[in-house]
Amino acid sequence: MSLDFAGFEWDAGNIEKCAKHGVSREEIETVLSGEPALREDPFDRAVERRLRAIGRTPAGRYIFVVFTFRQSVGHWRIRPISARYMHSREAGHYEQS
User: Fold this and answer.
1) Average pLDDT per 10 consecutive residues for the chain, totaling 97 residues
2) Which residue stretches of the chain are H helix?
3) What is this structure's pTM?
């Protein structure tokens, strides 16, 4: 499933949180700009809708990303909240489903 959006929303908060797990902005943007597998986040907050995405980087590593949509000047942007590389067992489970 592809996402329809006008760009990404980054600031010190989400850049640091994603980088803490070794995932770069470029990897996250590549995965979310492609066709990631999407699901609702079961820990959805009442304030904003959050989604989960799983996708592969060009290097073949699987990334798990939690993100939300934010409206900015009439356009929707993706705001990554957190991201991490998936463990091999998780990636295997993802491949099977």
Assistant:
1) 77 89 94 90 79 92 93 87 89 72
2) 12-19, 25-33, 88-96
3) 0.84
The token pair at 93 is: 């489970």
Distance CA 41, CA 68 (A): 10
Strand partners, 78: 8, 69
Q: Is residue 89 helix, strand or coil?
A: helix
- Whole-angstrom CA distances from 20 to 10, 25, 39 are 15, 12, 23
